[in-house]
Amino acid sequence: MSVSTKNKPIEPALAAVKQRLEEGGALLPDSPDNLLEVVGILKSYGVILGEYYRNLTYISEHQFLEFFPFFKFFNGDFSLSKLGRHWWHDRINFEFAEYCMKAMFWHGGGGLDKYLDSEEFQQRAKAAIAAKSKSNPLMAILHLLFPDFLPEQVRLMTYYSALGYFWSFMSPMFLELSDRYDRGEINSIPDVVRHIQDGLVAAAAVPYVYKVTINGSDYDIVPKSANLSFLMDTAVPYVEAVFFRSFPFRGTVSYNAQAQQISPEISHFNYGVLYADPLPVGGAGIPPTLLMQDMRHYLPQYLLDVYRNSDRGEEDLLVQICLSFQKSMFCVTTAALRGLAPHPFETQDPKEKKANDKFLAPWLDRLSRSRLYTLQ
Fold first, then answer.
1. What is the residue-wise DSSP string for 260-274?
2. Burial class (CB in 10 A: 0-12, 13-18, 19+), 356
3. How far apart are CA 334 and CA 338, in angstroms?
4. Is 195 helix (H, G, I), strand (E, B) or coil?
5. Cα 259 from chain centroid (whole Å)
């Protein structure tokens, strides 16, 4: 049963969370149970992200402008046995990776979105389309009749690449977190946040580039000269699109305009992982179900034991996984906020505290409508 926050004293609760941040804590309270859940679920998530990012990268580089990519989920390693497992759904659900990619594509944001609206991108896309069309008369005719269609597909391919690039950093980061926990180096939720923050900061300025090979020649879609980087141009747009906004889940709200259950203002979308009610997870048509089903196969034994010893055992396993995953994403959000803040949250300098307060205020306001309170 989801917990309503309407009757809770919002301001005192936010003040308590803010105080904890300023004392070195996280949005998620520190406890041995929370630590075990967060590290355990991020280990499973790290494995799944590894599969996701490799597939997204493969699609962006080897399925570029393919109209009917029937075997795009096979990463170039097709066999009849793999096809059988695919049809039987004995596989990784790569569709969820595409779902997250389309959320980024739709919501946009950051330098990547601006670059994709630039004249430079248009020219680079046209060059790649021309090269691809040389051996494909149907594509050439299509481009002549609908000149905006293929450039939009190149934009889409760029987001395949960008999300694959972002997750290529996050996957080993989460797996290393688990290894450090096993070695006794991670002993609290603040330790988890610090590990993630250090990883984000270390990769912050790494440039993002994207090129494809067509008929033996390389075509830069996003060159190094575009000055796009990991943190601000892939990580932050991902957090905004997937953690906060996302899409309303079909079957849980009406897409009928007359029902007015979905705001026409996209900035009001609060359907991301930080807001989602875990109970619908497992229902038909709910995209996060695919992720939870993937992660259940790679849970460390200590976390699986926790789930099995709960009141319902494994009957509501996907819901339990979703709750743990939500906790972990509040830790990732904390690390992102700490990395973006103008000054360390623990500062005692009045001017720096004022700057931090101004930075935190809109974020805490947005989080006040999330499931932050249910995790306190």
1. T-S-S-GGG---STT
2. buried
3. 6
4. helix
5. 29
- Can you tell me the mean pLDDT for 17-46? 95
144 SS3 class:
helix
Q: Which of 3, 112, 94, 111 is CA-nearest to residue 52?
A: 94
Give φ, ψ of 272 to 5 degrees: -75, 180
- Residue type for position 328: S
Side chain identity, residue 248: P
* Residue in 153, 202, 151, 199 with CA at minimum distance from that of residue 176: 199
- Report whether 192 contacts 200 (CB < 8 A): no
Residues 112-153 pLDDT 10s: 999 999 999 999 999 999 999 998 999 999 999 999 999 999
Instruction: Yes or no: say if 74 and 191 are a contact pair by the CB < 8 Å rule.
Output: no
Q: pLDDT exceeding 90 applies to what percent of the chain?
A: 74
DSSP per-residue string spanning 53-114: HHHHHHHHHHSTT-S--TTGGGTT---HHHHHHHHTT-S--HHHHHHHHHHHHHH--HHHHH
- Whole-angstrom distance, CA of residue 323 vs CA of residue 340: 26
Name the helix (H) or strand (E) containing 218: strand 217-222
Residue 275: pLDDT above 50? yes
Q: ∠ at Cα 280 (94, 162), nearest 5°?
A: 30
Distance CA 110, CA 226 (A): 13
Measured CA angle at 325 (ends 22, 163), to 5 deg: 90
CA distance 93 to 15: 40
Which residue, among 243, 233, 242, has the nearest Cα to 334 in the 3D structure?
243
